[in-house]
Amino acid sequence: MSHVLSTNLALIHPRLFTTLLLLDPVIQLSPPALGFGTDPPGGVNYTVHKDDFFPSRDDAAKFVSKSPMFKKFDPRVVQLMIQYGFRDLPTALYPDVESAEPATSKAVTYTTSKHQESLIQIRENFNARDKQGRVKINRRTHADMDPLAAFIPLYRPEPRSTFLRLPTLRPSVLFLLGKQTFLSLDEMREGIKMTGSGVGGSGGIPEGRVKEDMMLKHGHVSLPSCPFC
Question: How much is the pTM?
Answer without folding.
Answer: 0.75
